């Protein structure tokens, strides 16, 4: 045992040998070997001239992927939640009101971060599993006159893709509110156009549709949003995530703020290169085609999607758990029998859905055939009323179309 002893038996710990999983849950997704190779390249200092060039390249690639010309586009040192907190904690000042959605787990996290930033929270209601209705958003904006409106573009907890984004942002701007978008499960996987859609701030995570290990998380701010950040009456409550300080490192000065996670920046650079090589619109189309085959398979098997077709989220497929089946038992069996990861539901949908990702490097035909086959086998063995053969046939047919 370790602790206060002067020695430790390393043989008790052994070499690092994690299992080789196929990652088809809500994230992380499988990582392209090119990204892993990039992470094995030699370190340089975080102010080394060669690393400064890499920083510039990452920013340009992020602008391409976000579909924005925003100068203030950076990878935040941390996971997607760090980028989320950087966005909300800098834009929301004490006394500000932030309007947030109630239709998913991550809308609730927006609310929590806004309160921690000293803001007041107002809510626009929608059931879990449905998107925000533009009329309801208009009514809430008129009632609360918020300083900031936040919405989740792709709700990981429900499998819902928010439609009508330009309509929502236009309504918010009519009420002089800045718009913050959670794009953690959409960036690089489904259509997202930050500038064209009028989004002021968007944050994301690298481990989902970008298929990059967590550690450097995308964030972009418009000039209007950054002006609000730089004109605050008091400093944000987080020194580490203070964008007015991070601007000195990621802006023109390249002044020391913190030691950037160099290896993670290498990783996101290579992941974003893969996005650009494929082409962003082609990448959106691939996700829709491959996830569409997954959807066809689970439905043909006899399962039901949680989200309606008009707001189905290709990168995160929420599938209803059949009657009499324990979702946790299914997820455990898939890991044990197939080294395959999917996930259970969160929050209000805990125990009611499976969450099956189809993201980035994991969004491949062979993977979705594997998922449908393995899921059908496990469910059938547990007594569910499913037809695994019909599911596999439908998946293959959809992939040929």
Walkthrough of the structure:
The chain is an alpha/beta fold. It folds into two domains: 245 residues, Aspartate Aminotransferase, domain 2, CATH 3.40.640.10; 121 residues, Aspartate Aminotransferase, domain 1 (Alpha-Beta Complex), CATH 3.90.1150. Helix content is 42%, strand content 14%. The strands form four sheets. The protein has a seven-stranded mixed beta sheet, sandwiched between helices. Strand 3, helix 4 and strand 4 form a beta-alpha-beta unit. Helix 2 packs across helix 9, helix 5 runs parallel beside helix 6 and helix 9 packs across helix 10. The radius of gyration is 22 Å and the shape is globular. 51% of the residues are buried.
Shape: globular
Strand content range: 5-15%
Give the low-pLDDT segments. none
CATH class of the largest domain: Alpha Beta
Structural class computed from helices and strand pairing: alpha/beta
Helicity level, as a percent range?
A: 40-55%
């Amino acid at each position: 045992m370790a602790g206060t002893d002067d020695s430790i038996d390393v043989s008790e710990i052994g070499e690092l040998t994690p299992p080789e999983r196929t990652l088809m849950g809500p994230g992380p997704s499988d990582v392209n070997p090119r990204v892993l190779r990039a992470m094995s390249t030699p370190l340089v200092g975080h102010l080394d001239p060669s690393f400064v060039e890499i920083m510039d390249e990452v920013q340009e690639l992020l602008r391409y992927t976000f579909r924005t010309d925003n100068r203030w586009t950076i990878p935040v040192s941390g996971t997607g939640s760090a980028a989320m907190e950087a966005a909300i904690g800098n834009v929301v000042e004490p006394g500000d009101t932030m309007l947030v959605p109630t239709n998913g787990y991550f809308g609730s996290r927006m609310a929590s971060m806004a309160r921690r930033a000293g803001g007041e929270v107002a809510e626009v209601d929608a059931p879990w599993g449905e998107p925000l209705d533009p009329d309801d958003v208009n009514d809430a904006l008129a009632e609360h006159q918020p300083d900031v409106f936040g919405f989740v573009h792709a709700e990981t907890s429900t499998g819902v893709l928010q439609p009508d984004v330009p309509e929502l942002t236009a309504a918010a701007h009519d009420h002089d509110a800045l718009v913050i978008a959670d794009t953690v499960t959409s960036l690089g996987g489904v259509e997202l156009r930050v500038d064209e859609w009028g989004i002021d701030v968007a944050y994301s995570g690298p481990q989902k549709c970008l298929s990059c290990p967590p550690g450097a998380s995308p964030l972009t701010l418009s000039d209007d949003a950054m002006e609000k950040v730089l004109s605050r009456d008091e400093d944000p409550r987080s020194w580490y995530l203070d964008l007015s300080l991070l601007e000195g490192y990621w802006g023109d000065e390249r002044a020391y703020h913190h030691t950037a996670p160099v290896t993670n920046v290498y990783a996101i650079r290579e992941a974003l290169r893969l996005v650009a090589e494929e082409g962003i619109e082609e990448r959106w189309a691939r996700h829709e085609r491959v996830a569409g085959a997954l959807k066809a398979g689970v439905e043909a098997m006899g399962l039901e999607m949680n989200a309606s077709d008009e707001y189905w989220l290709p990168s995160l497929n929420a599938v209803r758990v059949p009657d009499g089946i324990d979702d946790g038992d299914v997820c455990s069996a898939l890991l044990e029998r197939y080294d395959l990861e999917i996930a259970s539901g969160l929050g209000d949908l805990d125990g009611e859905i499976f969450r099956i990702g189809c993201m980035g490097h994991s969004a491949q035909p062979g993977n979705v055939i594997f998922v449908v086959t393995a899921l059908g086998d496990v469910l059938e063995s547990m007594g569910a009323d499913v037809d695994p053969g019909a599911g596999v046939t439908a998946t293959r047919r959809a992939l040929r179309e």
